[in-house]
C-alpha cells in the first residue's frame, strides 16, 4: 500500500509523531486541532422552532485546516477518525465526517486510551462506527450552553454591569454558593455546655482513670452546675462493656467533584 492511502485524523498535533511511528509508512496522520465546526457567534444559531437544531459554521481560523484535511481525505482510500473517546471527541469525529464529505464505506472510527503502539494497533484492529448517542449528548450540551449564555448574559449586562457572563454550569454553581452563604448568614449560634468526668475505678491502685461524657447538653452554665451539684456523693457504675474489632482506612483522594 502506498504512503498516504490511510489517513488518520486526531485532535491534537502533539500526538502525530508517536502515532506515525507506531503505524509506519502506510499511514499519514493529521490533526483537526480540536473542533472544526461550531455555532455561529453572530447569533443564536439554534433553530428553536425545529427541534432546537444547531446551525454550524466553520470558523475562519479553521478553514485552512478543513481545506487541508479535505484534500488529504480525497487522496486517501481509508480514513480513520481517531479523536478522543469522550463526547467532545465523538462530536469532532462526526463533524469531520459531515464537513469533509466522508463516506461510511471507507471511514472508520477508532479510539485508544494511551499513545502506545499496542493500544494504537489494537484500535486499528477493532474499529467501530461513530456513536451518535455521544454526539447528541455533546450537541445537547453545546445548545444548552448557547441558549443559557445568549439569553441571560444580556440581562446581566443591563441589570448589573457589562461583560458579565451566564452559563449552563457557572450560573447554577453560583446559585448553590449564594444559597449556602445565605444559610450561613442566617444561622443563629447557640452556646451549650457538656459534662465530662474522670472516674477512678474501685480496686485499681495504678492511677487508672476512665473518661466519660454525658450524652446530653445543657443550654446554660447554671443548668450544668445544678446537674453537677446533684451528682455530689453519687455512686457510678459501669453497666456493660462492649468489645469489637474494627478497621480504619484513610479517606479516598479527592476528585474534582468531591473536592
Name a few traits of the molecule.
single chain, 259 residues, alpha/beta, four-stranded parallel sheet, two-stranded antiparallel sheet, 7 helices, elongated
Give a quick precis of the structure:
The chain is an alpha/beta fold and 259 residues long. It is built from 7 helices and 10 strands.
What layout of secondary structure does this protein have?
Blueprint: E1 6-10, H1 16-23, E2 27-31, E3 38-39, E4 46-47, E5 53-54, E6 56-57, H2 63-75, E7 78-81, H3 87-99, E8 107-109, H4 117-125, H5 132-159, H6 170-186, E9 196-199, E10 210-213, H7 221-231
Parallel strand pairs: 1-2, 1-7, 7-8
Antiparallel strand pairs: 3-6, 4-5, 9-10
Helix pairs in contact: 1-4, 3-5
- Amino- and carboxy-terminal Cα gap: 52 Å
Order of helices and strands: EHEEEEEHEHEHHHEEH
Strand order of the largest sheet: 2-1-7-8
Count, helices: 7
Compute the number of strand runs. Answer: 10
The gyration radius over C-alpha positions equals 33 Å
* Structural class label: alpha/beta
Please state the overall shape, judged from the principal axes of the Cα atoms. elongated
Largest sheet: 4 strands, parallel
Estimate the helix proportion, in percent: 25-40%
* Low-pLDDT segments, ≥5 res: none
Amino acid at each position: 500500500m502506498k504512503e498516504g492511502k490511510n489517513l488518520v485524523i486526531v485532535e491534537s498535533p502533539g500526538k502525530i509523531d508517536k502515532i506515525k511511528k507506531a503505524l509506519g509508512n502506510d499511514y499519514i496522520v493529521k490533526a483537526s486541532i480540536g473542533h472544526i465546526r461550531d455555532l455561529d457567534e453572530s447569533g443564536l444559531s439554534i433553530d428553536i422552532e425545529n427541534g432546537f437544531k444547531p446551525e454550524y459554521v466553520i470558523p475562519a481560523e479553521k478553514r485552512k485546516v478543513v481545506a487541508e484535511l479535505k484534500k488529504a481525505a480525497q487522496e486517501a482510500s481509508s480514513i480513520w477518525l481517531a479523536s478522543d473517546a469522550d463526547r467532545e471527541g465523538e462530536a469532532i469525529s462526526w463533524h469531520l465526517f459531515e464537513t469533509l464529505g466522508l463516506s461510511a464505506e471507507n471511514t472508520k472510527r477508532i479510539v485508544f486510551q494511551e499513545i502506545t503502539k499496542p493500544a494504537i494497533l489494537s484500535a486499528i484492529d477493532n474499529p467501530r462506527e461513530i456513536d451518535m448517542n455521544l454526539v447528541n449528548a455533546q450537541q445537547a450540551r453545546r445548545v444548552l450552553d448557547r441558549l443559557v449564555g445568549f439569553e441571560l448574559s444580556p440581562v446581566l449586562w443591563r441589570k448589573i454591569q457589562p461583560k458579565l457572563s451566564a452559563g449552563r454550569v457557572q450560573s447554577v454553581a453560583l446559585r448553590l454558593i449564594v444559597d449556602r452563604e445565605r444559610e450561613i448568614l442566617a444561622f443563629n449560634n447557640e452556646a451549650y455546655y457538656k459534662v465530662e468526668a474522670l472516674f477512678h475505678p474501685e480496686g485499681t491502685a495504678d492511677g487508672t482513670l476512665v473518661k466519660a461524657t454525658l450524652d446530653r447538653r445543657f443550654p446554660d452554665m447554671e443548668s450544668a452546675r445544678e446537674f453537677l451539684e446533684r451528682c455530689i456523693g453519687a455512686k457510678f457504675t459501669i453497666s456493660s462493656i462492649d468489645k469489637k474489632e474494627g478497621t480504619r482506612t484513610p479517606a479516598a483522594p479527592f476528585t474534582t467533584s468531591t473536592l
